[in-house]
Specification:
This protein has 343 residues and is of the alpha/beta class. The chain folds into two domains: 54 residues, Urease, subunit C, domain 1 (Roll); 280 residues, TIM Barrel, CATH 3.20.20. The strands form three sheets. Strands 1, 2, 3, 4 and 5 form a five-stranded mixed sheet that branches. Strand 12, helix 9 and strand 13 form a beta-alpha-beta unit. Helix 2 runs parallel beside helix 3 and helix 5 packs parallel to helix 6. It starts with a strand and ends in a 12-residue tail after the last strand. The structure holds zinc ion. Zinc ion binds next to loops.
């Protein structure tokens, strides 16, 4: 296939090694998906398309490091709810959608990201049911949008109601609505492995492993995720300490692991260079130090803007502590919907 050359000309091209406050004007010559050269007044012979970027800043594409496309159609709903209650509404809403709805929410979210300059999105997707058909719809929609995706359908084996206090006092119908059915570990890990083979990583598609959160996964599930990540050389993403309530859950339910979700993940073999902990607003200094131990230096914290408002001061403190410890990479993610930022 003949190659296609594109010239982006006359923009201020951001260079981290150069003047970051007033980047120099330059042209960028691209062949297919590779940048051939950056410089002043590049020749435009054999160029198929010229894009005039004068008066604009040209930067590398932004990366949305934490995102859920299943929440796109929930935007603007349940604005004032704390996370624990918000999840009880939105998790069922994201499940069992039609193929058209799944396609629409994936495309809408992808296009919004692109409009904001985001060219890579890490979609930690709550896909229900977890099957080939729904997966195909998501993969096809991302290809259609043209955005790069690090795709990680979430897995868990402890149902949502497992984290609800006094759950046994709720009527059976309410328990069922909130989600009281565990999922098979083997079926979910087999599903992931099957998808890695059906849609091999390449081009704009990448895979990752996403146990929902440590408190929603038994040790066997987390170990299975760690093994799969090693086998396919993949990153792992999981939610950790999004709210104060989750700290209480850790102290109470994980007393055997020092009351710490970080210790729990360490003890079952998930803590390591592949692991990215998401939100992590209420992580303690002691836990950061534990993550900073030798061989765990690549763990990162996604400090999402959805940590904003109520949780921002704590989020900032967390990121500062992590940076001081000299090991952590902080990233920025955009909230899937506004309600998600309120807790
Ligand atoms: Zn999330």
């Amino acid at each position: 296939m003949p190659s296609k050359r594109t010239l982006i000309c006359g923009g201020q091209v951001y260079d981290h090694e150069g003047d970051v406050h007033k980047p120099a004007v330059a042209d960028i010559l691209i062949e297919d998906d590779k940048i051939l050269s950056v410089g002043a007044n590049l020749a435009s012979d054999d160029v198929h398309e010229v894009i005039d970027a004068s008066g604009r800043l040209v930067v590398p594409g932004l990366i949305n490091a934490h995102y859920h496309s299943h929440d796109v159609l929930c935007r603007g709903l349940f604005e004032e709810l704390p996370l624990e209650i918000w999840l009880l509404y939105t998790l069922p809403m994201g499940a069992d959608r039609s193929k058209d709805e799944v396609r629409a929410r994936t495309l809408v979210g992808a296009l919004e990201c692109l409009r904001c300059g985001i060219t890579t999105v890490q979609d930690m997707l709550g896909l229900s049911p977890l099957n080939d058909e729904q997966t195909d719809v998501v993969v096809a929609a991302y290809r259609e949008a043209g955005i790069r995706v690090v795709f990680s359908p979430m897995v868990w084996d402890i149902p949502p109601i497992g984290m609800v206090r006094h759950k046994d006092s709720l009527p059976p119908a309410v328990q069922e609505m909130l989600g009281n059915k565990p999922r098979s570990i083997r079926d979910q890990l087999d599903y992931l492995e099957h998808q890695f083979k059906r849609h091999p990583a390449g081009g704009t598609l990448h895979w990752a492993i996403a146990p929902f959160a440590p408190q929603r996964c038994t040790p066997k599930m987390l170990q299975g995720c760690a093994e799969l990540a090693d086998k396919y050389d993949l990153a792992v993403y999981t939610h950790v300490y999004e709210t104060r309530g989750q700290v209480l859950i850790a102290r109470e339910l994980f007393a055997d692991h020092d009351g710490s979700l970080i210790s729990y993940m360490d003890n079952v073999g998930l803590l390591g260079p592949r692991l990215n902990i998401v939100h992590s607003v209420w992580i303690s200094r002691r836990e950061i130090d534990r993550m900073a131990a030798p061989m765990r230096a690549s763990c990162s914290i996604s400090s999402a803007t959805s940590n904003s408002r109520a949780a921002l001061p704590q989020s900032t403190t967390c990121a500062k502590q992590a940076c001081v410890s000299g090991w952590v990479a902080t990233t920025v993610a955009v909230p899937t919907c506004r309600a998600y930022s309120r807790r």
